[in-house]
Amino acid sequence: VIQVQMRFCLIESSCEQEDCYPQGIAVKVNGKVCPLPNPIPTNKPGVEPKRPPRPVNITHMVRLSPTVPNHVTVSWNVEYGKAYAVAIYLVRKLSSSELLQRLKQRGVRPPDYTRGLIKEKLQEDIDCEIATTSLRVSLMCPLGKMRMTTPCK
């Protein structure tokens, strides 16, 4: 299954960014209003609700032809100190077996690498008064509640 997805995120180069929609966003694809994920309601007065961080499937709105152009119009309210990026991707859905095969092709990381990551997490905020002294990890699948045969990060 192939999809055309539009994604939004903050422009921040210090770390990987998750999807994040600007306030007051409006999107049109080929002149038609594009439906966006419904905002998550908030109890706080005066705070605009945020949309769930996920891509927008615009496959049904685009013309998948090399000879016919597509036009995308995006507008949003300016937020002081925040800049956003917009990207459109052609993606293919992968099955769980394909994803597992890709993980196995990367090879197994040595135990010392994982130990190093755990130690780094435990010592992240040295100046903080509250220190993490242990980190509990479950090998149970959150969906099937069965022990994972191939646990990975």
From TrEMBL:
Q: Give every SP-RING-type domain span.
A: 126-153
Q: Does the keyword Transferase apply?
A: yes
Q: Which GO terms describe its biological process?
A: protein sumoylation; regulation of transcription by RNA polymerase II
| Record GO cellular component, one term | chromatin
Pathway, per UniProt? Protein modification; protein sumoylation
Q: Does the keyword Hydrolase apply?
A: no
Record InterPro entries = PINIT, PINIT_sf, Znf_MIZ, Znf_RING/FYVE/PHD
Domain (PINIT): residue spans on this chain: 1-94
Matching entries from PROSITE patterns are given as:
PINIT (PS51466), ZF_SP_RING (PS51044)
UniProt family annotation: Belongs to the PIAS family.
Q: What is this protein called?
A: E3 SUMO-protein ligase PIAS
Q: Which organism is it from?
A: Gryllus bimaculatus (Two-spotted cricket)
